[in-house]
Amino acid sequence: MNTGRFRPADGFTLIELLTALLVLSLLSLMAYRGLGVVMASRDRIQTESAQWRHAASFFTRFERDVRLAVPRRVRGQPVSLPAWLGQPDAVQAPLLEFTRFAGTGEADTPYRVGYGINGAHQIELWIWPALDRTASTLAARYVVLDGVKRLRLQYLGPALTWNSAWPMASSDPPLPLAVRLELILDSGETVVRVFAVHS
Predict the structure, then answer these.
(1) Which residues is 154 bridged to in the sheet?
(2) What pLDDT was estimated at residue 96?
(3) Segment (H or E) for 53
(4) pLDDT for residue 47
(5) What are the respective helix, strand and coil percentages of the chain, to the nearest 5?
(6) Which residues pair with 153 in a beta bridge?
(7) β 122-127/140-146 pair status
(8) What is the rounded CA–CA span in Å between residue 83 and residue 43?
(9) pLDDT value, residue 6
């Protein structure tokens, strides 16, 4: 006959085990949600970083083109065009087109480039195969920046005032002193850059 006291076995009771499982479940849920926030933040940062890298590349390209601008008119049929043509309301043409040197050395030949924005929120670079051209000469168009809601260009004249078009009058010089570029991105940011024009 066992006269000793009843001693429970060492271990957890059912209530303690369920409590521990509940705490572990809550910690796992919080960790999963935290990881989801971290992953979403990482993806957003990577997307924004890529967008700003592309924007910086576009600004570098635009600045190089502007610095190589040359006051050479386009002689063509049916009409000739000024060396620098900024037209804010252009529909089937770029907002800005101008003549620039190729920048390849002593035998540098000028050619014609343009910048515009299409309906897909993309800035396009226009390049014509010949400087002097006919009405049937078409430009090749290349997307140089995505995610742009609006592109606005202004031109600094000799009176040091900003103009929405260039030339404004027949007495204006072939090239403006500077160009002011304003981008409104799809994400809502506004970016403004000013580039000096060297002739």
Answers:
(1) 180
(2) 97
(3) helix 14-67
(4) 76
(5) 25, 30, 45
(6) 181
(7) antiparallel
(8) 44
(9) 59
Taking the C-alpha atoms of residue 108 and residue 99, their distance in angstroms, rounded to an integer, is: 12
Q: What is the pTM of this model?
A: 0.76
* Cα(49)–Cα(41) distance, integer angstroms: 12
- Whether residue 78 has a cis bond before it, omega within 30° of 0: yes
Pairing outcome for strands 178-185 and 162-163: unpaired
Contact present, 194 and 178 (Cβ < 8 Å) = yes
Residue 153 is encoded by which pair of tokens? 């260009």
Q: Which residues contact 124 (CB under 8 A, 6 or more apart)?
A: 94, 115, 116, 117, 118, 141, 142, 143, 144
Q: How far apart are CA 196 and CA 67, in angstroms?
A: 7
Residues linked to residue 126 through DSSP beta bridges, in sequence order: 114, 141
Q: Mean pLDDT per segment of 10 residues, for the chain of length 199 residues? A: 59 80 85 80 78 92 95 84 92 92 75 94 94 86 95 95 95 96 93 89
pLDDT at 107: 61
Contact 47, 160 (CB under 8 A): no
Residues constituting the chain: 199
Site of tokens 């076995």: 9
User: Which residues fall within 8 angstroms of residue 183, CB to CB, at 6 or more apart?
Assistant: 55, 145, 148, 150, 151, 152, 190, 191, 192
Contacts of residue 67, defined as CB under 8 A and 6 or more positions apart, other chains included, come to: 195, 196, 197, 198
Spatial contact of 158 and 102, defined as CB atoms under 8 Å apart: no
